[in-house]
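Bug #77: duplicate submission created two jobs. Keeping one. Sequence:
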Amino acid sequence: MQDAKGIIRRGFTLIELLIVIALIGLIASVAMVGMRSNPQKRLDIKRVSDVGQLQKALGLYATTQKNFPVMTGCVNGVTDFVSTELHARGALGAGSIIKDPSFPSDVTQCYYYTSTSGATYSLRYTLQTTSSAGPAGNHTVAP
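Kept job's structure:
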């Protein structure tokens, strides 16, 4: 760019810099809104992952013990019979805690395990939103 005296100046004008800064701010705000997905969906994806891990651990347990743990109730990841059995028999690694991310602050949200005979089991969990993890509502899995 050349000024009135004929000197060539290099660089940007203040207006150009402000426009670029405004555009970067606009793009960043749009990106942040897109990246900040619904926290309930993140919890639902974790629930599906946890239930898959729990099913694998129960399958390993049944392979070595010839049956599933007999229990009816919430799997809290620490003190329930299923968790203690899976940890004791090596089906879950040390430090693995599988529990609903909302439990115990929301006691209605838990992985509800039922096995009365040890021959089979059912595991109920609840998704809060409809997403790639599945439709909202109660879901039950079995071996």
